[in-house]
Amino acid sequence: MRITMRTNLAIRTLMFCAVNPHLTVRKSDIAAACNASEHHLAQVIRMLGHHGFIDATRGRNGGLQLMRPAAGINIGSVFRIFEADLPFAECFSASNTCPLVEVCWLRDAISNAVDAFYRSLDKVLLSDLIDGNDRLAELLRLNIGCQRESRQ
Prior knowledge:
Helix content: 40-55%
Shape: elongated
Strand order of the largest sheet: 1-2
Distance between the termini: 40 Å
Number of strands: 2
Number of helices: 7
Mean pLDDT: 87
CATH topology of the domain at 5-85 and 126-146: Arc Repressor Mutant, subunit A
């Protein structure tokens, strides 16, 4: 199993915002800290905003903030949003051409494994990824000189 770049960037973006909870962070801040393309981040940020995970404001004083506490963001739900449109195997695709699909038991086994994967991630909150993770905080925390106060 492989996680898409979009999902990976979504989790990195959420972690960055969570490590800097009282600041308005910029896409460029996240890109620099996470070695990511601003273009790819823009797509991810749009989806995170659309699904109510972050508040994204454009313009000179714009930036990003979490829309809810890190303890209120379930990682499984984030994964489902970003991975939902990608079938895990050909037999789950609308364009499936496998002649075995009607009799193959592997499809059920894969479906059960994917369900278990998501159930496992449903137990993880964003706060579980950042609370007490001092090394992560060191990597993602904005420098004092670069801090921008929250719009709240």
